[in-house]
Amino acid sequence: MALRIVELSGGVGGARFARGLDAVSDVELTVVVNVGDDLPTHGLYVTPDLDTMVYTLAGLEGPQGWGRAADSFVVNAELARFGVDNRFQLGDLDLALKIFRTARMGAGQRLSEVTDSVRTGFGIVATVLPASDDPVRTIVTTREGARLGFQAYFVERQHRDHVLRLDFDGADLARPAPGVIEAIDSADVVIIGPSNPPLSIWPILAVAEIEAAIRRHPRVMAVSPLIGGKTVRGPADVVMADLGLGTGTRAVIAAYRGLIDLLVVDSGDAEPSGEVDGVTVVSMSTSIPGREEAAELARRMIAL
Amino acid sequence: MALRIVELSGGVGGARFARGLDAVSDVELTVVVNVGDDLPTHGLYVTPDLDTMVYTLAGLEGPQGWGRAADSFVVNAELARFGVDNRFQLGDLDLALKIFRTARMGAGQRLSEVTDSVRTGFGIVATVLPASDDPVRTIVTTREGARLGFQAYFVERQHRDHVLRLDFDGADLARPAPGVIEAIDSADVVIIGPSNPPLSIWPILAVAEIEAAIRRHPRVMAVSPLIGGKTVRGPADVVMADLGLGTGTRAVIAAYRGLIDLLVVDSGDAEPSGEVDGVTVVSMSTSIPGREEAAELARRMIAL
């Protein structure tokens, strides 16, 4: 019988790990993806992490890990003619998905319904779910007191601000997308992927019913996004320090306090190991640039 | 002092003529463009005649007269992945305009406001106005009794149906776009371009205030879209016959009954000439594939 795995995931790191899980035979994978970074761009519904997940599972992701491989940028460049801010680069192939999604949602479909059509369009077998069909928006309050939407913080300001506080606007009213709780409850194991804990995973857990389902699940693992104490990409290490979670493995454990039983850290981050705050820390290589490395990590974790 | 000219226009033919008017020195041109063919496509606001007008005035129109020159179709092709009907071919450069317009209208701007930004983006000096900011939709009732939206009739069914009746849904409630009446009232001459009279010009005139402004204007000319009794493109001749307007020059005069003082017909359509039903018929070459021919026709008409 297939092993049922649910992964909670942000963008690139979590998507690469999902590709590994998906490559393991006899795994029935459901990914629950962060929607805290979703935002309208040029009037189109853009959901960065869901799209990165879909493209990565389809093996069509761009060289940076997001967007589509071998994409062109004809539309994006042309938007400049109208004085539009087009610094957030959207490729033409990528825009087709955005246009399709926006049209369907404009016609009344929910994000999860459209995501399922998208999944089908890319021939993906794994179940891909947004954490919620309701708006949950990550708001970064900087040390200087500015309240920035995620894209303003991450893309425009290149995550150079120190973070004082994170809010997940709308999370108090948000319900899990259909299938999320059922998938978690029936999963043999839940794995929090190697994503940014505060910025990518907390917005998922901010949906109270999801957090409750994770808390009651008997087997929840996480993969640390740190390698040698630093993030492979993005500002997870800095943000965790800014938020008072500390540094290194301890920061990740603190970010997931009360939620996980086991944390996988990279071999270079072996200290501390064993039991830390009730969490079993296991080290192995967590560098997963390709499908094979990710599948190997997934197999080793499943063996645990 | 500049000669103020208002042209009422549909798509390709009227746009080519506008390019000629625009090339004549000392002409202050305002084009009032049909919006009866507007329709949402992939959730985007598509207004075929306005876009053809803008592209043609900018000298960037596609080889068929519509769309953009040297466009690519990456987005349109990719939409097929999601099972979307993508037979209505939208190019990537063309989509940038559609995306821009849809975003602005989604943010509350009116079609005429966005059109002015678009005009500016293309460096067009002439004033480009939609007939109305309110929805006016051309509905074709076929002899078989089907009610078809314009694109269904024109694009999907390739205008092969015989037309029993035309309706312009919404026209009874539609107001002229800001500036339309002022432009007509202050124009030295109004010219109805070589567009399909029932399908492209009637939806403009269906806005009662526009028709009234045309009726009270002392100098209204029209250019017949027929050459040798046939339309250069599209089904104007067939539609006029279907609607009982007759054939050739007489059909065009009948379509514009009570509205025009002078009709310019192609040299090959010299009969009837002189006064016909109170309209002075003048023949000259109306074949305007290029800017120069169009400018020459414009100059000759201005000389009248």
Could you explain the architecture of this structure?
The structure is a homodimer of 304-residue chains. Chain A is of the alpha/beta class. Chain A has one domain (3-134, 168-303): 3-Layer(aba) Sandwich (Rossmann fold). Chain A contains 12 helices and 15 strands. Chain A has helices at residues 12-23, 48-57, 74-79, 92-106, 111-121, 150-156, 180-186, 197-205, 208-216, 236-242, 248-255, 291-303, and strands at residues 3-9, 27-33, 39-41, 44-46, 127-130, 137-142, 147-149, 163-169, 189-192, 220-223, 226-227, 230-231, 262-266, 274-276, 279-284. In chain A, strand 14 and strand 15 (279-284) form a beta hairpin. In chain A, helix 1 packs parallel to helix 2, helix 1 (12-23) packs across helix 12 and helix 4 (92-106) packs across helix 5. The radius of gyration of chain A is 18 Å and the shape is globular. The model of chain A has no long low-confidence stretch (mean pLDDT 95). The A-B interface holds A 42-44, 72, 74-76, 78-79, 81-84, 92-93, 95-97, 99-100, 102-104, 106-107, 117-118, 121-122 and B 42-44, 72, 74-76, 78-79, 81-84, 92-93, 95-97, 99-100, 102-104, 106-107, 117-118, 121-122.
